[in-house]
Automatic annotation (TrEMBL):
SUPFAM superfamilies: SET domain. GO terms for cellular component: cytoplasm. It comes from the Eukaryota. Keywords: Cytoplasm, Metal-binding, Methyltransferase, S-adenosyl-L-methionine, Transferase, Zinc, Zinc-finger. This is Protein-lysine N-trimethyltransferase SMYD5. It comes from Oncorhynchus mykiss (Rainbow trout). It catalyses: L-lysyl(20)-[histone H4] + 3 S-adenosyl-L-methionine = N(6),N(6),N(6)-trimethyl-L-lysyl(20)-[histone H4] + 3 S-adenosyl-L-homocysteine + 3 H(+); L-lysyl-[protein] + 3 S-adenosyl-L-methionine = N(6),N(6),N(6)-trimethyl-L-lysyl-[protein] + 3 S-adenosyl-L-homocysteine + 3 H(+); L-lysyl(36)-[histone H3] + 3 S-adenosyl-L-methionine = N(6),N(6),N(6)-trimethyl-L-lysyl(36)-[histone H3] + 3 S-adenosyl-L-homocysteine + 3 H(+).
Length: 416
């Protein structure tokens, strides 16, 4: 069940005090910190719920009319409106419309720039934390505004599927700009790993090499013009901007929200006769077929956020925990995938399900390029004797990727 909207403002005022069943420990210079269980955790238990320090919807996702609250990323379309848009069927009617948890009557716009929020609480929270510094007012549609230029430049370098956003960095700057205690926020952000390279393993982030210096220079210039602040002058230097870029690239946790998905889950919980269940399941199956035909895989409002406690979780190819967003907003629920003993490290997968099933060589390549480390989890150790070869399917993907690099998109950033 979705958490009441009022509750999310009491969660994670201090993200390090969310849960009494975990603790952050320093491991070593290579792995840095890790998250460990302080007591026994059962499979299926919610380990903690965390609100991000900052979050932002992806820019292409927003441009493609995926409507989300500017603060908490809650989907703003009703389940029926969402289904109509995604399926391309304008007169589609969903059964059990009362199961939709979206309340358009509560939505509010910023009085100056008209960006939308799911509630007055979110509108006020955004204004208090960062929006006053970023509000474009009547220039919201002006392509020559410095922030608009920054967004356009990012879109031209970073195509779907998206994994990060320059606006996450912008909201970090704006948060410090507006804060009375600027040092408090700077200290919180400094707890995220922000190295642009792993000197011990001689690994550099794939988007911070010489190939992308031109794009990084353009972004830094636009970023500085739009957002420069004396208190954060180090973030605007070439090296500081690279670190900030690396911070959001390696720590940003993807967030997905969907009013349609929430409606489907609510339908699953209905007490129905076998005939009613069969009819409803058939309707939903056909709806997803229509959506796949019209829209493909991009079903959710998507963005990313910086979660201080979750970022302490190290990667494992056989994770014992996973993050989800069942409240249809930015509240991250970390749940146990297996029983976890006291003192055991809590590991999550930085890879998606398909990537986890790939060969050790392919998994290592993804983790090395994006997260700057070589995995030594039990699964990887057990596969050490495997040849450094990818499957046929993976080889085809890599060949296609290599061909794309040789075309006009050679210098474009396509992943963070």
């Amino acid at each position: 069940m979705a958490a009441p909207q009022d509750d999310m403002f009491s969660l994670c005022v201090d993200p390090t005090k969310v849960s009494s069943c975990v603790e952050v420990r320093f491991i070593d210079k290579i792995k840095g910190k890790g998250l460990f269980a302080k007591k026994a955790i059962k499979k299926g238990d919610t380990i903690f719920i965390e609100r991000p320090l900052v979050s932002a919807q992806f820019l292409w996702n927003s441009l493609y009319k995926y409507k989300a609250c500017e603060f908490c990323l809650r989907a703003l379309e009703t389940a029926e409106d969402n289904a109509r848009r995604l399926s391309g069927i304008p007169d589609l009617s969903l059964p059990h419309p009362e199961l939709c948890k979206v309340h358009p009557e509560l939505h509010q716009a910023c009085p100056q720039c008209q960006v939308m929020y799911c509630s007055n609480e979110c509108r006020q929270a955004a204004a208090d934390q960062y929006h006053r510094a970023l509000c474009l007012g009547t220039s919201q549609e002006d392509p020559n505004h410095p922030i608009s230029k920054l967004k356009d430049a990012w879109r031209s370098m970073h195509y779907p599927p998206e994994t990060s956003s320059i606006m996450l960095m912008a909201r970090m700057v704006a948060t410090v700009k507006q804060a009375q205690d600027k040092g408090h926020w700077q200290k919180l952000f400094s707890q995220f790993c922000s190295r642009a390279a792993n000197e011990e393993e001689e690994i550099a982030h794939k988007l911070l090499g010489e190939k992308f210096q031109g794009q990084l220079t353009v972004l830094r210039t636009l970023f500085t013009t739009a957002l420069y602040d004396d208190h954060l002058n180090r973030w605007f230097t070439p090296e500081g901007f690279r670190s900030l870029f690396s911070l959001v690239g390696t720590n940003g946790q993807g967030i997905g929200t969907s009013s349609l998905s929430q409606w489907v889950h609510a339908c699953d919980a209905l007490a129905l006769t076998s005939q009613q269940r069969e009819q409803l399941d058939s309707f939903i199956d056909q709806l997803y077929k229509d959506v796949e035909k019209e829209t493909g895989d991009f079903l959710n409002c998507e963005g990313s956020g910086l979660f201080l406690l979750q970022s302490a979780c190290n990667h494992s190819c056989i994770p014992n925990a996973a993050a989800s967003f069942p409240s249809n907003n930015f509240l991250l629920h970390l749940s146990a995938l297996s029983d976890i003993s006291p003192g055991e490290e809590i590991g999550i997968s930085y890879l998606d399900c398909c990537q986890c099933d790939r060969s050790r060589h392919s998994r290592h390549k993804i983790l090395r390029d994006n997260y700057l480390f070589i995995c030594s989890c039990p699964k990887c150790v057990s596969q050490m004797d495997e040849l450094d070869l990818t499957s046929d399917e993976e080889e085809e993907e890599e060949e296609e990727g290599g061909e794309a690099e040789g075309d006009d998109m050679e210098d474009e950033m396509t992943d963070v």
